[in-house]
TrEMBL record:
Region annotated Disordered, chain positions: 24-64
Name of this chain's protein: PsbP C-terminal domain-containing protein
Species annotation: Fumia xinanensis
Biased composition (Low complexity): 31-58
Signal sequence extent: 1-17
Residue stretches in coiled coil: none
Key words, A-Z: Signal
Length: 206
């Protein structure tokens, strides 16, 4: 059991590094992203009917992403793209006028049940601090409506980039969902904390 738990912790720590690739400052190409307008507009034609469009529907001022057992809502005016990583698909959403900040969502099945949140933080935080020695790293339980969630905040140099990242690890059975907000240093953020938390709280895992 301890061996399995240690493996799970290692994989969870690795999620952070993998998600950084999906949280870069580059905006999605227009051809590979969709806002709620294009998602909900059935008049869009031709080859533009991508998996992005099929997996989203607008609900008022929000777009609901629903695909591969993962559902969450984000502002309808935002762009969305999918990035494939070795650990799985990462969905990246951001405002059209993003200053380089973005939100990335990735789900990973660890193959073994994850521990309670407090135990998870106690096991994962030291590994993150060791992995990102040039950054200030903190961890705590999430105080929002999403249950069984750990929050890790990192500020400093991450994989050669000066940035801030706040990552929410949502634990659900054998699955881990990482919701990451990242912003390069020195820019005025276009995404506020309340919006990120609203995405986290809207998330559902099948």
């Amino acid at each position: 059991m301890k061996k399995k738990t240690f493996l799970a912790m290692t994989l969870c720590a690795a999620v952070l590094a993998l998600t950084l690739a999906g949280c870069g400052s580059d905006k999605p190409d227009n051809d590979n992203s969709s806002s709620s307008v294009s998602v909900s507009d059935s008049s869009d034609s031709g080859d533009s009917s991508s998996s992005d469009e099929q997996s989203g529907e607008s609900a008022g001022d929000l777009t609901v992403y629903n695909d591969n057992g993962l559902e969450f809502s984000y502002p309808s005016s935002w762009m969305k793209t999918n990035t494939n990583t070795a650990a799985g698909d990462t969905i990246v959403v951001m405002p059209e006028d993003s200053a380089g900040d973005s939100v990335a969502v990735m789900v990973q099945d660890l193959g073994t049940k994850v521990p309670a949140v407090k135990d998870y933080i106690n096991a994962t935080l030291p590994m993150l601090q060791a992995q990102y020695a040039d950054a200030e790293v903190t961890g705590e339980e999430y105080d929002g409506t999403q249950k069984d969630t750990a929050v890790f905040s990192l500020t400093g140099t991450l994989q050669g980039m000066d940035m801030t990242m706040v990552q929410y690890h949502i634990l659900n059975g054998t699955k881990l969902v990482a919701v990451s907000y990242s912003a390069p240093a020195g820019v005025e953020p276009t995404i506020d904390d309340a919006t990120v938390k609203a995405i986290v709280d809207s998330l559902k895992i099948a």
